[in-house]
């Protein structure tokens, strides 16, 4: 199959940069649900603009391109080993050109392989079938939403829902809780795949396979079809909304599959996918390896998604430029929109761990500064300078154990991320005079546009591209204050309010 490798490069590129037709339609419907100038409306506006920019730039919709996962159907007689080699070569090439972020990290040493290859990576599921063509489906699902996957073993006591038995009502309770627990951390509005039954491993696989279904299909099992519709409606009453800012669009798709199980077990497995729902498929000619058909693409696709300019600037925004004074920070309150100008530094898991145990180099004083929870996609220019290809925020809650201490140690005034942080950070913000700024999760192209220059990088060799500390010069970088220095947290508020609704749903 001479052309198979190139077909896989095309599939990876298109999946990374161009959302499927059914996902576009679901997101467009969600935009219509939110008031344009609400926080939710602004988030949706940035999301839709970002979707268009990704197509125009042929760049990743979101910088986190996840663990590429392929589902391959092959006819009899096809050389699967050769296909695997071609897929791996395509992955390396797509990483080199910035369509994929180098995401494969040795689990023990933390060393990034740099090319997205590693132990059991990429994930390739081969299955034979009796058709005379090859089908390859690819899903790119980032870590933020992957971390919100959840599995229940019934019977169980589900928070906010009470006792969940081994029946349809128990499944209902698990699904309601699964959406609640994700809040905005998985970059809502999201889509869920649910696997009922199987064992712990096959249950999650079944859940993930539900994400391969079309958003607008109907489950052939009438009982599950009814449950899908019911849970979609109920989830959207939780008022979690886009990015967890509160709003009407929390869940855009609910797909449920079932497997047989052993009598002793009853698992309900939920795979949560963010709005950046990147999955496409192709049919391949087994003789040449060329693409004969694209899946998840329809003739009536909504080609342009944006109706606005992302987060529109009114001139009333507070401009933050490092070094920022404590007085400026303490005057900010939840809901304010800020514009960051000048210098910021990226820092995420490895960086926070490092700072807890080491001092930064002496010439690296970032007091009064801003840390951006972001693992960007970077490419090196011919002149040796780096340029940002994609740079949206990553999930902040992972830094919860360290953030308050890092703020104090480095004298930070602002942290930018997405999904919010917990009580320890909130107390740290209040004590040390700092704020948490929520950028729009997944809006990687939208924020990359704000980066004027990459002025330096630290820890690149040790930590790899996503985890290194990048020094960025930004212009007109918008974000929303969601945790202020006066003890207020929008995330805490939305969590409490949605939990009260969850309890109500549990009693219906
Ligand atoms: S949109 Fe959010 S959850 Fe999805 S891959 Fe990007 S950062 Fe992760």
UniProtKB/TrEMBL annotation:
Catalyzes the reversible hydration of fumarate to (S)-malate. It comes from Chlorobaculum parvum (strain DSM 263 / NCIMB 8327) (Chlorobium vibrioforme subsp. thiosulfatophilum). Its EC number is 4.2.1.2. It catalyses: (S)-malate = fumarate + H2O. It holds the Pfam family Fumerase. Gene3D superfamilies: Fe-S hydro-lyase, tartrate dehydratase beta-type, catalytic domain (3.20.130.10). GO terms for molecular function: 4 iron, 4 sulfur cluster binding; fumarate hydratase activity; metal ion binding. Its cofactor is [4Fe-4S] cluster. Residues 311-493 form the Fe-S hydro-lyase tartrate dehydratase beta-type catalytic domain. Keywords: 4Fe-4S, Iron, Iron-sulfur, Lyase, Metal-binding. Residues 8-280 form the Fe-S hydro-lyase tartrate dehydratase alpha-type catalytic domain. GO terms for biological process: generation of precursor metabolites and energy. It is an enzyme of class 4 (lyase). Homodimer. The lineage of its organism: Bacteria, Pseudomonadati, Chlorobiota, Chlorobiia, Chlorobiales. This is Fumarate hydratase class I. Belongs to the class-I fumarase family.
